[in-house]
Design brief:
The complex is a heterotrimer of chains A (304), B (345) and C (405). Chain A is mostly helical. Chain A is globular and about 55 Å long. Chain A has 11 helices and 4 strands; from the N terminus they run ααααβββααααβααα. The C terminus of chain A is likely disordered. Chain B has a two-stranded antiparallel sheet. In chain C, a hairpin with a 2-residue loop joins strand 11 and strand 12. Chain C contains 11 helices and 14 strands. Chain C is globular and about 70 Å long. By secondary structure, chain C is an alpha/beta fold. Classes of the chains: A mainly alpha (304), B mainly alpha (345), C alpha/beta (405). Chains A and C meet through helix 1, helix 4, strand 1, helix 8 and strand 4 of A and helix 2, strand 7, helix 7 and helix 8 of C.
Chain lengths: 304, 345, 405
């Protein structure tokens, strides 16, 4: 029983990480039909901003050495700035193009960012030790839960609530929802596309920054490739959840995270290395049974 | 055959004839002048052309993105290894059933068989997936790739797991690759002009209209998917016999994306775009690599720091996408007009 | 752009220029290096390449090979397999007599295949896989390392010598090297009579190993706390796993293979103790072999602090070519190959090295155990096995009941 509870917490924490990433991707998809593969590299750059750029094997903390509030602010600033810059320089010029062109643009951007980091930081993965005390577990009802897992779950819930309030209560949030329902009509009604899209990128940058911090606190890993597996599963999650629906992105993130932990737990030892076969099979099954995702979006009749 | 019939036949097939001739010319020029390294580069580029043409057959004609096609490339590559590795190598590297383990098959029928296996797998997974539309279909193919990737990575007796499988006979050079490229270009062209190809292209332009006209979208997409998978598999076969070794990790996201990028940068709506995209990106990559290694300009050697090639190619791709969002060819085909009759594009 | 990478760029240019200006100097012995100078593999090929360059310089100062001086030709594989094959063709075109390939079987295979096809000896810096040899690439391929299975077995032998009896194995199933280390560990551990509390797997890029930790704790509660834990993985996934294990209060000694050499990664795990890696030598000046300590002293003067002991292997590769060529009295590849095949405890810098016509990886090589205590690295032990696990090229699924005697 205690083991089961522990697995549930593990699954929720991993699901939270995927849900936050999926939300960042889902938000951008909503306003401009862009599947932003470079979102993973936003996370990666956020992580690397913690240390001094250098090709030495050992890393020296930069933003990572600042006190916690400044560190969080610093990483958010870097990633949001990056997200806005990519929007302005790479995505705005191709905004009206086919979604496949948008996708490949984000791929080219991702390739660029990864190789830029490789060139600056060298090929050896680095470590950054932030908030090591968060790894210590606390006892809740007989279950030993690492504080970081709890923080990950709580932060995800708080961000979700804030985002929902923002989307429902503020003029910009309402404009953003209108834009993701029907971008053309929203524009005709006087919504300023550039502002809405830039805001969406800023929020997705913020979400990416939070994921970087949680991820590095958990793993300490800085690698040019670290964003790829996250974004891959998050991307799958947004589609499973229902492309174009933010609730769907979150649901999808949890489904993929929980599914991954579930198979890790139930598969016998000899099968576990094939865990991802089962995760992808689950994804395939969901798509075949519910082609438009678990949470159906009202507006999407897309052709990608 | 009268002159005018020949002319109209040539005109009808001018696109594949021209594309094949240009590539052949490049191969002949390289063959007459250059070093082994350039010949290898050209071979690699030609294999990429096969892959991108394979991708185009489905993506270009249907307008549906697919992320999973590299699974078929991997299937083709390993299948040809099962058939063509020497029995000595198979005996200690793999644990195959007797029909594979005790024979070494000739390379040409093996190439056909391996590519056909990819097509058969595509047929099986395609039947359910082709009912999906748009992004769901794209992600479903990605899930298929994820499943095959993970499975092959752990399928020790057949694939040596994650380790590189060595000892695949080396026979693919520029000429072999060129031969298959020409075959791929002609098949792709014949397909896109066939009634199946035209039906699929109709669904790309107007899904509802095509459906109203009685076209079964899943069925048409499935046909393209299977033909496309054959050539993706063939690309894998060529890659295996070009490098002499294959590894599961090379059939994953980077190959998926670079092939898609080549198609879209070339212009995803035309066969010419597929060929141009693969050739141009390969050529620019090689030029950047040479500059990175150091080229001599007026007596001094200019070189760029390691890694600049990758940054350079990413920038080139971004610039093309920004300034020519519909690709280098803009979806037009290269064609020849021999008669004065004006023809619609 | 930082200075190290600029330096690398300049070195490459200088080498390219040197290669060009010497293109006609047929008297030189040319060693072609088809290794990564960019991409992630550069981090693993760079240090042994520096070691090899030191060997070339020192051997040239002492008269070269058969009176010819050695010249290096380097071509960048860019951590890419197709580019690897092209790099091999390029160094051959630039006159290479012998070839050296990447410190990894997967990345080195395409270049070694080209060399083997041309009947040219190709030695990998440090691939820990017999397939970089007769069993895979072919008769001309060698590697200057011991199989991952032997590394795992030595880790087991070390743990046994410390009196530990209960083991747990955590395998990162993403690459074969990890599998070979964990299988070698498990097989040797059972042969010694050790108990296995449990086995589990994770994947290199998993963001969390929380469920593996939960399973570990269940096993520990049921069968007793493990006294030794094999974590078969590599940087960075291994660092992530160890951070999470230690964070969860799991203090069992951790053993691993040469992928975890050095302690540069240990800052991800604050105050890490009881980590033991089986590798080639100690970079901390406390290796029992004076020549190793002396080598790293010279290395430091030239290139700064080494991250790992891999430069030893780079140096040894050039040494091996020199010894074989001089015994053969010729640069002819078939003759050099025959001499390499006769190596019997040949004293190279990384240790006594044995090759056989059917075994181009040294299964019996004594290895060094490096420990990390309080985040600091030091020498722990030197162990060689007379009875390493029998070579396997394919590993079965990883379960606790494997290798029951």
């Amino acid at each position: 029983m205690i083991g089961l509870l522990q697995h549930v917490v593990d699954a929720l924490a991993l699901g939270s990480l995927y849900a936050l990433t999926a939300l960042g991707i889902g938000l951008i998809f909503g306003v401009m039909r862009l599947i932003n593969f470079a979102h993973g590299d936003f996370i990666m750059i956020g992580a690397f901003s913690l240390v001094v750029p250098s090709s030495a094997a050992t890393s020296t903390l930069l933003i990572g050495a600042w006190p916690a509030p400044l560190m969080v602010g610093g990483v958010c600033f870097v990633v949001i700035a990056l997200a806005l810059a990519t929007e302005r320089l790479a995505f705005r010029p191709v905004r009206r193009a086919d979604p496949s062109v948008l996708l490949i643009t984000s791929f080219a951007l991702s390739f660029f960012l990864q190789h830029a980091v490789l060139a600056v930081h060298g090929g050896r993965a680095k470590s950054a030790n932030i908030w090591p005390h968060l790894m210590e577990p606390i006892l809740i009802g007989g279950v030993r839960v690492p504080q970081l897992q709890l923080i990950t779950i709580v932060v995800t819930l708080v961000l979700l609530v804030v985002l929902v309030v923002f989307l429902r209560r503020t003029p910009m949030g309402i404009a953003m929802r209108a834009a993701s329902e029907d971008f053309l009509t929203a524009r005709l009604l006087g919504i300023r596309a550039n502002r809405v899209i830039a805001t969406a990128f800023a929020i997705s940058g913020l979400l990416a920054a939070v994921v970087s911090l949680l991820y590095v606190a958990q793993t300490s890993v800085l690698s040019f490739h670290m964003g790829v597996p996250l974004v891959l599963f998050a991307f799958v999650a947004t589609v499973v959840g229902g492309m174009g629906s933010l609730t769907g992105a979150v649901v999808g993130g949890f489904v993929v995270g929980i599914g991954s932990v579930f198979f890790q737990v139930v598969l016998p030892a000899g099968w576990r290395s094939n865990r991802d076969v089962w995760v992808y099979a689950l994804v395939l099954l969901i798509l075949l049974l519910r082609p438009s995702g678990l949470v159906k979006s009202k507006s999407i009749e897309e052709k990608v | 055959m009268s002159g005018s019939r020949l002319r109209s036949l040539l005109e009808a097939y001018s696109t594949p004839v021209l594309l094949s001739s240009i590539l052949s010319l490049v191969v002949v020029v390289v063959w007459m002048n250059a070093s082994g390294v350039l010949a290898q580069t050209v071979t690699d580029a030609l294999i990429r052309v096969v892959l991108v043409v394979g991708l185009y057959i489905f993506v270009g004609n249907s307008g549906v993105l697919a992320f999973g096609h590299i699974a078929f490339t991997m299937i083709g590559a390993y299948a040809t290894a099962w058939l063509t590795l020497s029995t000595f190598k198979k005996s200690f590297a793999l644990q195959l059933p007797a029909i594979l383990a005790e024979h070494q098959y000739p390379v040409f029928p093996s190439a056909i068989a391996a590519s056909s296996l990819a097509a058969v797998v595509a047929l099986i997974v395609g039947i359910p997936i082709m009912r999906l539309s748009g992004i769901s279909a794209a992600i479903a193919t990605l899930a298929v790739l994820g499943m095959f990737h993970t499975f092959y990575n752990n399928w020790g007796p057949w694939t040596m797991g994650a380790a590189t499988l060595p000892g695949v006979p080396l026979y693919v050079d520029m000429w072999v690759a060129l031969g298959w490229v020409v075959f791929a270009i002609f098949v792709a062209f014949i397909y896109q002009r066939s009634r199946y190809g035209l039906a699929l292209r109709a669904t790309r332009e107007d899904e509802f209209g095509a459906r109203a006209a009685g076209i079964s979208i899943p069925r048409q997409r499935l046909i393209a998917f299977v033909i496309s998978a054959f050539f993706m598999g063939l690309g894998g076969v060529l890659q295996a016999h070009f490098l002499g070794s294959i590894a599961v990790k090379n059939f994953w996201l980077s190959l998926t994306f670079i092939s898609l990028a080549m198609l879209i940068i070339g212009g995803q709506r035309s066969l010419t775009g597929a060929v141009v995209g693969a050739s141009v990106i390969s050529a620019i990559t090689e030029v950047l690599r040479l500059v990175e290694n150091g080229i001599e300009v007026g007596g001094t050697t200019i070189s760029l720091p390691p890694g600049s090639q990758e940054l350079g190619i990413a920038l080139v791709m971004l610039l093309v996408l920004i300034f020519r969002p519909s690709g280098i060819t803009g979806g037009r085909e290269l064609r020849l007009r021999l008669s004065r009759r004006a023809r619609g594009a | 752009m930082n200075t190290n990478r600029l330096f690398a760029g300049f070195t490459a240019t200088a080498l390219a220029l040197a290669a060009y200006s010497h293109a006609r100097a047929a008297e030189d012995v040319v060693i072609g290096f088809a290794v990564a100078q960019s991409g992630w593999m550069e981090a693993y090929d760079g240090p042994p390449l520096k070691g090899a360059m030191m060997a070339i310089e020192e051997i040239n100062a002492a008269g070269g090979i058969l009176g010819h001086s050695i010249r290096a030709v380097v071509s960048d594989t860019k951590t890419d397999t197709v580019q690897g094959a092209k790099a091999a063709t390029e160094v051959i075109a630039k006159g290479a007599n012998f070839m050296v390939v990447s410190c990894d079987y997967d990345m080195g295979a395409p270049a070694a295949t080209v060399a083997n096809d041309k009947g040219m000896v190709a030695i990998s810096f440090c691939a820990s896989d017999a397939k970089m040899g007769v069993q895979g690439i072919g008769p001309y391929a060698f590697t200057m390392n011991t199989p991952g299975q032997t590394e795992g077995a030595i880790a087991a032998a070390y743990g046994w010598s410390k009196g530990w009896r209960k083991a747990y194995a955590l395998l990162d199933a993403s690459i074969e090297y990890n599998k070979s280390v964990c299988h070698g560990f498990l097989e040797y551990w059972k042969k010694l009579g050790g108990e296995v509390v449990g086995v589990d797997t994770f994947m290199q890029e998993d963001p969390s190993i929380a469920s593996q930790i939960t399973r570990y704790k269940q096993a520990a509660a049921a069968k007793g706390e493990p006294e030794i834990m094999a974590v078969c993985s590599y940087v960075p996934g291994a660092v992530s796993a160890i951070r999470q294990l230690r964070g969860a209060g799991i203090a069992a000694p951790i053993v691993s293979g040469d992928a975890m050499d050095g302690h540069y990664w240990a800052e991800g795990v604050p105050g890490l103790s009881h980590h033991y890696a089986v590798t080639f030598g100690s970079i901390y000046g406390d290796d029992p072999r004076a020549e190793v300590n002396d080598f790293f002293k010279r290395y430091r003067e030239k290139y700064g602090e080494p991250e790992t002991s891999f430069p030893l292997n780079g140096y040894s590769v050039v040494q091996a070519l020199k010894i074989a060529a001089e015994r053969a009295g010729s640069l002819d590849n078939a003759k050099v190959l025959a001499e390499l095949n006769k190596f019997k405890k040949e004293p190279l810098l990384w240790g006594p090295t044995t090759f056989e016509p059917q075994m181009h990886i040294d299964q019996f090589h004594p290895m060094t155990v490096i420990q990390i205590q309080d985040g600091k690295g030091s020498f722990a032990a030197s162990i060689g096995l007379d009875d390493p696990p029998k070579l396997q090229l394919i590993f079965p699924e990883f379960t606790a009941d494997l290798y029951e005697p």
